[in-house]
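[Q] Does anyone have a clean structure-token version of this?
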Amino acid sequence: MSFKLFELLLQASIYTVTISIVSILIGFAIAILLSGMLLSLRRHLVLPARIFVSFFRGVPLLVQLLLIYNLLPVIGINVPSVVAAVVGLSLCTAAYQAENLRGGFASVPVGLVESAEMVGLTPGQIFRRIKVPTALRLTLPALVNEAILILKASSLVSVVGIVELTRMAQDLAGSTFLPLQLFASAGLIYLVINWIVALAGGLIERSLPGAPR
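[A] Here you go.
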């Protein structure tokens, strides 16, 4: 396989990484809101969050992408394929991240919070200095796993017309008759990307307050 073909795969992988990172970050912002709603004592907040999480965890991502891609024009919203892909991935990962964060916040030791209250920290300070770092440290491995899953699942966005890494490998394999070399190269690129994500997650986990050194 020529370097030119490998270079085309690398260029497509930039699309894969960009769409995945943007989706994961948007999903994380939505997940924080959802986790707060899930932990709320108010039923009118818990119920919509549970319905959202159940739907996006229960319906295959491929179906979600096709629904969003075909639904938006019907309700008068015409957006590029890449936007529909990001929306689909973001909503899907938000559901999984919300469950991870909910578990993390629920696992913050009560004694830790009570000690912070005794030394005079305000609820806002306790949230920022105690609850968020502790919950993130507890859930970071799960969040990193979710990020890796989204990176791999991003190959599904080709159904809405995005030429990401897997789609590029398919297109090149069809025109060059080198499927083994191209898909092996695509697999190697995915492996390197996910190894970097796992490495970065480990570094972030060790940098959080209270993490073992």
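[Q] Thanks! Anything notable?
[A] The helical segments are 3-39, 43-58, 61-74, 81-106, 110-118, 123-153, 165-176, 179-207.
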